[in-house]
Amino acid sequence: MTRPVVHFEIRGQNPAALQGFYRELFAWKINADNPLGYGFVEPGIGGPESGVGGGITSGDQPRVVIYVQVADLAETLAKAESLGGKRIMEPFQLPGRPTIAQAADPEGNVIGLVQQ
């Protein structure tokens, strides 16, 4: 039986700033009202109930990337840049798959974007 992905974690030197970045970029509800200041991200709607799938591939450096579904890739990339992020990969149509792009948050964590 395949074990589903059930949690993700984004780390950085300034977690409060990262929480603000993701709150603004994706309208995530994040609650850091706990003794550790750990920003718990509320689950979204419309995702697969059994968890998310993934892939393992080659790359020039080790990296784990989470992909977030968005309505407009160009708009989301521009918004990421306006919030201090960086455009990493322009929108790319995967053969037989959705269109994707990548950005980095202000601390360099890469975020995958999937056209809704």
What this model shows, in words?
By secondary structure, this protein is of the alpha+beta class. It has a single domain (15-44, 61-115), classed as 2,3-Dihydroxybiphenyl 1,2-Dioxygenase, domain 1 (Roll), CATH 3.10.180.10. 19% of the residues lie in helices and 25% in strands. It is built from 2 helices and 6 strands, in the order αβββαβββ. It has helices at 15-26, 73-82, and strands spanning 30-31, 40-41, 66-70, 86-93, 99-104, 110-115. The strands form 2 sheets. The protein has a 4-stranded mixed β-sheet, covered by helices on one side. It has a two-stranded antiparallel ribbon with strand order 1-2. Strand 1 and strand 2 (40-41) form a beta hairpin. The radius of gyration is 15 Å and the shape is globular. The two termini are 28 Å apart.
Primary descriptors:
116 residues; alpha+beta; 2,3-Dihydroxybiphenyl 1,2-Dioxygenase, domain 1; 4-stranded mixed sheet; two-stranded antiparallel sheet; 19% helix; globular
SSE layout:
Layout lengths: L14 H12 L3 E2 L8 E2 L24 E5 L2 H10 L3 E8 L5 E6 L5 E6 L1
Parallel strand pairs: 3-6
Antiparallel strand pairs: 1-2, 4-5, 5-6
**CATH architecture type:** Roll
User: How many E strands?
Assistant: 6
State Rg. 15 Å
Overall average pLDDT: 90
Shape assignment: globular
CATH superfamily: 2,3-Dihydroxybiphenyl 1,2-Dioxygenase, domain 1
